[in-house]
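Collaboration report, partner site 2.

Our partner group contributed sequences for two proteins of shared interest, and the home lab folded both. The records are reproduced in the order in which they were received, starting with the first partner submission.
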Amino acid sequence: MNFEKVIAERDNKTVYRDGDRSIKIFSPTSSKAAILNEALNQAIVEEAGMNVPAILSFYVLDGKPVTESEYIDGETLDRVMKNNPDRFDEYFNMFIDLQIELQSKSSRFLTRLRDKLNRQINEAELSATVRYSLHSKLSAMPKSQQICHGDFNPSNIILDKDGKAYILDWSKATQGNAAGDAAMTCLLFCLDGEIETAKKYVDIYCEKTGTEKSFIKKWIPIVAASYSVEVSGEEHDKLISWVESFDLFD
């Protein structure tokens, strides 16, 4: 096994390539339950018919949890879009079409999106009155079992040498209403300062799916409050402010 070629490093894991395998070695303090849950989510989505790197094995090496999956030789869609600005619209539409294809699938085996959102709203640094209002708004949203990625952005898409797209990072996958997942993608662009891209994303997504922009807007404060518990600093403060006011659609 070759642990010399590092392809990614994060706070709690290092990812290596060994031939046709991608090997993630986590820190000893990482939650085995969380790691296995991500692997389960990935397997569920693979069985639903989406292109994802296949999970191959899980084990513990020198006290460190390890997962092995299929290695996809290619570049992230984010990098491809930046390297080919003249084809931005083509790749951006591919990105949105891929999300819509994913959301056309359903699974009753994934964590429910509304359960995750309710739990994280309870943890958010908001007044009891605001939290109650958000819970009420979430309760009124239509229920669904659509697959939601939870972190759908161009850096989590890999294009292989033949142009085939694979979706990565399934730690936040849930089943729920697709508009909630679209609202999350909108917020991710906004957090990166890509406001015009966020507007363009919502315009195209709503046109392709027949979704009213007002419906995406209803999800924004709910998703912003939930995601605020996962980040800190400036990102946290922006999300909290968007719970009260978000003017992208105005």
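Second partner submission, folded after the first:
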Amino acid sequence: MILDTLNNAELYESVHPLFKKAFDFLRKENLAALPVGKIELQGRDLFVNVVDITGKTAEQAKMETHQAYIDIQVPVGKAETMGWIAADRLQMPTEPYNQEKDIAFFADKAANFISVQPFEFAVFFPQDGHQPGISEGTYRKIIVKVRV
């Protein structure tokens, strides 16, 4: 897992071959003005989901993992708390891995919580269980999906 600001995104471009393209998009676009929906940057290998979400409590937010994609999550409208736990510590699946949607859900709770401010980003790799969406009210969020 990585947490930082978009101003420092260049430091992480070497982590994955598609990160530079992803971070260039995040730095150059007016993220608050993007329409809700999916934006393809490089087919199924790199795309962006722009969503308006309603925040949940830590008890309501679901722990999740992905196998095929890395998430780069950027709250735009307001700060969001995200939980984290190493995926190999997850022991209570509630929904098995869905290959089509690239997601599995767990009843486990986070070992750590981070507060991600607007225009900061959190990167979650397949080895990262994450519990996003902990906040109040409705807000815009950008989720970049990067194929592993």
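Feedback sent to the partner group on the second submission included the following. The first helix runs from residue 19 to 28. The first strand starts at residue 2 and ends at 5.
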